[in-house]
Write a structure and sequence with these properties.
Layout (H helix, E strand, L loop, with lengths): L10 H6 L10 H21 L1 H8 L4 H23 L3 H5 L1 H14 L6 E4 L2 E7 L2 E3 L1 H20 L1 H5 L1 H21 L3 H17 L4 H21 L1 H11 L10 H13 L24 H34 L3 H25 L17 H18 L3
Antiparallel strand pairs: 1-2, 2-3
Helix pairs in contact: 2-14, 4-16, 6-7, 6-9, 7-10, 7-15, 7-16, 9-10, 10-15, 11-12, 13-14, 14-15, 15-16
Length: 383
């Protein structure tokens, strides 16, 4: 049985509440998601072939790894979560939060946690590795949505009953991510939480206060790690130190500029040959722009924007507050993360190492995104 808010709805909620439910999913939403997914797999097969051949003597090793450990389990979760009653997620929203904390802390357990680069953000169990923070994104959306739906908009808008406990919950999630540290993932999770909080009735003045506190905390994090200050300076002045700290962004600019309107052709990237770092991860949009050009790259951006507007429409038509908040949270996850990734590649945001949803390499990221997409499709059947 779902906890459903019975208090009076706002004007926007009343006019969009449907009079009847259907059992047909939103096929347009499914089409948008799988269009991005298929496009991403094609782009990844090209971006990853040089590194795959260098490391494994197989041009498609990493691509096949993505299919096996990202796409297949992700599709399984997609179809399962699209079928079961989404109300069960609200029933176990508290358990979702507890599981989130356990997953985030587990990366610090000796013998299980794995460090890649500067961040200790992975778990390796019996040879299978995954990034808990990717799973936590969906779990946090479910737990916050259930909590806000149960409490109602009046308590959420209150300072002591809404803002203070929300800030405490968010702090419990953010602290282990800061300790890893994974600032890019931290930014995405905080933005998702703030969007849900706002839609659930949080006051704009409270959100601005949290934003100012967040900027102060970010300043402390930058002061503690010199490389973060260097990244910030590179964002402000990318022409500085092009062979050092500015190498990544300058190579991304070179890749995007080389593509022109129509690109060099699929598979014809020059920057993926050990020039541009992280060509399969956060830099994959630069490879897309280089190989397929501005028109196709803009088409990918339009797909994400279409996903945003379709998702907002689904949120307006959702049958209860819990499903509305979940929908908004998942759509915020996909579109805000895509914006942060693409914005970093074109130089309007600092580099943070955030992957492009459904496109970048990463089995746990793709699996979690497809699971979240299944929840969206599930909710769309009840509008």
């Amino acid at each position: 049985m779902r906890f459903e808010t019975r208090k009076k709805r706002s004007f926007g909620e009343n006019i969009f509440r449907p009079k009847a439910r259907t059992e047909r999913p939103d096929y347009v939403l499914i089409g948008i998601i799988f269009s991005i997914l298929i496009f991403g797999l094609i782009a990844l097969s090209s971006a990853s072939n040089f590194q795959s051949y260098n490391q494994f003597n197989d041009s498609y090793y990493l691509f096949k790894h993505q299919l096996l450990f990202g796409l297949l389990p992700g599709l399984l979760l997609f179809f399962v979560l699209a079928k079961i009653d989404y109300g069960i997620f609200e029933k176990y929203s508290v358990l979702s939060f507890i599981l989130s904390i356990i997953l985030l802390i587990s990366v610090f357990v000796p013998g299980i946690g794995v460090t890649y680069g500067r961040a200790r953000s992975w778990i390796n169990v019996a040879g299978f590795s995954f990034q808990p923070a990717e799973i936590v994104k969906l779990l946090l959306i479910v737990s916050l949505s259930g909590w806000f739906a149960y409490r109602g908009r009046e308590k959420t808008a209150d300072f002591w009953n809404g803002l203070v406990p929300f800030a405490f919950i968010l702090g419990l999630i953010c602290l282990p991510i800061i300790m890893q540290p994974d600032i890019g993932t931290l930014a995405v999770i905080v933005l998702i939480a703030l969007v849900i909080y706002f839609v659930a009735g949080g006051r704009l003045s409270h959100i601005l206060g949290l934003g100012l506190a967040g900027l102060g905390a970010f300043g402390i994090l930058v002061a503690q790690a010199p490389y973060r200050a260097e990244r910030l300076m590179t964002f402000l002045h990318p022409e500085l130190d092009p062979e050092g700290i500015g190498y990544h962004i300058n190579q991304a600019f070179l890749a995007i500029g080389s593509g022109g309107w129509f690109g060099l052709g699929l598979g014809q990237s020059r920057q993926k040959f050990a020039y541009l770092p992280e060509v399969m991860g956060d830099s994959i949009f630069a490879i897309i722009a280089e190989e397929l050009g501005f028109i196709v790259s803009a088409g990918l951006v339009i797909l994400f924007l279409t996903l945003l507007f379709r998702g907002l429409k689904l949120a307006q038509l959702s049958p209860d507050n819990f499903s509305r908040y979940v929908t908004v949270g998942i759509i915020a996850w996909f579109t805000l993360q895509a914006f942060l990734n693409i914005a970093a590649m074109v130089g309007i945001m600092p580099l943070t190492g955030i992957p492009l949803p459904f496109v970048s390499y990463g089995g746990s990221a793709l699996m979690s995104a497809l699971a979240a997409a299944g929840v969206l499709v599930n909710i769309s059947k009840h509008t």
